[in-house]
Specification:
The complex is a heterodimer.
Chain A: E1 27-31, E2 37-42, H1 46-65, H2 68-84, H3 86-97, H4 101-121, H5 125-129, E3 131-133, E4 139-147, E5 150-154, H6 162-173, E6 177-181, H7 188-198, E7 207-210, H8 214-223, E8 229-231, H9 239-249, E9 255-257, H10 273-276, E10 279-287
Parallel strand pairs in A: 5-6, 5-8, 6-7, 8-9
Antiparallel strand pairs in A: 1-2, 3-4, 4-10
Helix pairs in contact in A: 1-8, 2-4, 3-4, 3-7, 4-6, 8-9
Chain B: H1 15-24, H2 30-40, H3 47-59, E1 61-64, H4 72-83, E2 97-100, H5 105-113, E3 121-126, H6 136-148, E4 153-157, H7 160-164, H8 168-181, E5 191-195, H9 204-216, E6 221-223, H10 235-252, E7 257-259, H11 267-281, E8 293-295, H12 298-311
Parallel strand pairs in B: 1-2, 1-8, 2-3, 3-4, 4-5, 5-6, 6-7
Helix pairs in contact in B: 2-10, 3-11, 3-12, 4-5, 6-8, 9-10, 10-11
The chains are: A alpha/beta, B alpha/beta.
């Protein structure tokens, strides 16, 4: 029994390292799994998506230009800061996904572990998917993976933290920058994640988080000529919308990671697919002995 | 002083009458001017009005390259872009002019002249651009060179040192002399734009004074900046210059153009300027003959916004030329 007045929060977006309100000035009510009011979240509009793409584009060159080793350190740092805020994330997962505290703890641990796991890949992926190709001529022939560019990610609707981390970390660790549309009904872990990103050495614009409806924002991202790839996992099961987005994405030949029929189980070992989906292979012919 | 309208004859007769007139101009309310400019910048221009504004802004661009590293190839590419800013869309209008150093005028002219479509003019900066620090005969020779090479417009810089020292007559005489040097043998004139470099003039009062000074000396256009000094064009400075050309026309019946240059990079900024032109000077100035943007990167953003309007999807810088 407390007579203290609730601090009712209205969260904001995360674009270019800052926390702006939505350009539309709209927000929406976030409810927990029992339908009780939790907080307000900003409802991202098409112009927020445009701004986020601009910020991601601006951040792409410097981010891709960092050494893989440095990106690894930064992604590891995200995990460190998340670990510090573990109780907050547990609470957010409990509220968002309706899990028990002990199950939520496992989810948060898995999310942090996944960041550490991907951080380790930053300076190893080139050795695994790159190659020194044997060619019939006096050349070194080297294939190396390069980041695709600005990637739009529709984050999973159900798994609001582990799913989010599992789609964002592999994209940025290889040098891409990302615009994420969070789960519509469960945006709180994404908002907390944005607060972690802002305080963990990640340059502004590398990750941009929009809370709101994928159905509203995604068509603008899919048709945006300055977005190089899109991950449609957030519209898993919505065949109609996924098809429309793929058609829109075809205009500038975006890489598309297609929407699965149902949301995957994020607890299983992710493999390399999430990283290689947003890498381009560059092959260089270098003359020998000249 | 044939260029001076008769009503202002008395003003330009002596240095002291000139000083008296310029110092007698009402002072600029700095806070008021900035608030007015900021207020006009909040207007929302959408849909068909925006489409109109974008096309108008493209038609007003003086596509500029003023670098020590300019090559003939770069100038040719720029001239080609001025004629067809968006090669994928034939409905896209041409830019107003290309603005280059005098030695590149012939190159630009050659590229622009070889096509039938070209209403694109060639503007050349002259008179020891950008500092304006040279003897008068050198400035005049510089001007004549550019005119002979075929420049349609001359962008001259004033001697800011003389202006700030209060030698108004000297600045006035220089503008008159350069204007005379703009005359072509066939009796036509290259249009004269007078650059103030407002970033070096310290006060808004000075901007108002120099605007009047240049207009009385016969400038066809008054231009904010060289683009080499920060701050370059700003909304309040342009506001003061627009007020000056409006008042000048009221007094003398002569119309003078305005050209903000430098620092205008986005279509949004350009539209703010157009709103201001309409509200302060009036609709008559909403024309490439009377208002120009001195810019290089602006054009790409205008084209991107134009493409967004025609295709309905956001465009990216990958689809437009790098200059």
């Amino acid at each position: 029994m407390s007579d203290r007045i609730d601090v009712r929060k209205t969260y904001k977006l995360y674009i270019g390292g800052a926390f702006p309100r939505s350009e539309s000035a709209y927000s929406y009510e976030v409810k927990d799994n029992k339908g009780k009011f939790v907080a307000n979240a900003a409802l991202a509009s098409r112009k927020d998506a445009r701004d986020a793409v601009g910020a991601a584009r601006k951040a792409f060159g410097p981010w891709a230009g960092r050494t893989a080793y440095n990106r690894a350190q930064i992604v590891y740092r995200i995990a460190e800061v998340m670990e510090d805020r573990r109780p907050q994330f547990v609470q957010a997962v409990v509220k968002s996904e309706g899990l028990t505290a002990s199950k939520a703890e496992k989810v948060v641990d898995a999310a942090i572990d996944r960041l550490v796991w991907y951080a380790g890949w930053a300076d190893k992926i080139t050795q695994v998917v790159g190659n020194a190709n044997p060619v019939a001529g006096p050349y070194f022939n080297l294939s190396t993976p390069e980041p695709t560019g600005v990637v739009a990610v529709l984050a999973p609707q159900e798994s609001s933290l582990l799913g989010l981390v599992s789609v964002v970390a592999p994209v940025i660790v290889t040098g891409n920058t990302v615009v994420v549309v969070s789960s519509y009904e469960r945006p709180l872990p994404a908002v907390n994640f944005a607060e972690v990103l802002a305080t963990s050495d990640v340059p502004g614009g590398v990750v941009n988080i929009l809370t709101g409806s994928a159905a509203t924002v995604a068509p603008w991202l899919a048709s945006h000529m300055d977005v190089n790839a899109i991950d449609l996992v957030g519209v898993a099961g919505d065949h109609g919308l996924a098809t429309d987005l793929e058609v829109a994405a075809a205009d500038n030949l975006k890489r598309v990671r297609r929407a699965p029929v149902a949301e995957p189980d994020w607890a299983v070992d992710p493999g390399l697919d999430a990283m290689t989906a947003f890498l381009e292979t560059k092959t260089v012919w270098h003359p020998i002995g000249v | 002083m044939t260029s001076t309208p008769t009503v202002l004859d008395d003003v330009t007769r002596t240095e002291s009458s000139l000083r008296q007139f310029l110092h007698g101009l009402p002072g600029v309310d700095q806070v008021g001017a900035e608030a007015r400019a900021a207020g006009l910048g909040t207007r929302s221009i959408k849909t068909s009005a925006k489409a109109y504004a974008l096309d108008l802004a493209i038609r007003m661009v003086d596509l500029t390259t003023l670098e020590g590293q300019d090559t003939p190839g770069k100038v040719r590419a720029l001239a080609a872009k001025a004629m067809r800013p968006d090669p994928a869309d034939p409905t896209c209008p041409a830019a107003a002019a290309v603005c280059v150093y005098p030695d590149m005028v012939a190159t630009a002219k050659e590229t622009l002249g070889s096509s039938g479509v070209s209403a694109v003019k060639v503007a050349a900066v002259a008179t020891a651009f950008p500092s304006g620090r040279a003897a008068l005969d050198i400035k005049l020779a510089d001007t004549r060179d550019a005119v002979e090479a075929g420049a349609d417009e001359i962008d001259m810089v004033i001697d800011r040192g003389a202006f700030l020292a209060g030698h108004y007559q000297q600045v006035y005489d220089e503008i008159v002399a350069v204007k005379a040097a703009c005359a072509r043998s066939n009796g036509e004139d290259a249009h004269l734009k007078v650059i103030f470099e407002t970033g070096e003039l310290q006060t808004y009062d000075n901007v108002r004074r120099v605007s009047w000074l240049a207009m009385m000396a016969g400038a066809h256009f008054i231009k904010t900046s060289t683009g080499k000094v920060q701050p370059a064009a700003t909304l309040p400075v342009t506001l003061i210059m627009l007020e000056a050309v409006r008042d000048f026309r009221e007094l003398t019946g002569q119309m003078v153009g305005v050209k903000p240059a430098g620092g205008i990079r986005t279509a949004k900024d350009a539209i703010k300027y157009l709103v201001m032109v309409n509200e302060v000077a009036g609709q008559d100035w909403l024309d490439p003959d009377w208002f120009r943007f001195g810019a290089s990167t602006l054009l790409n953003d205008l084209l991107m916004q134009r493409t967004k309007m025609t295709t309905g999807r956001y465009s990216g810088p990958d689809y437009f030329t790098l200059d």
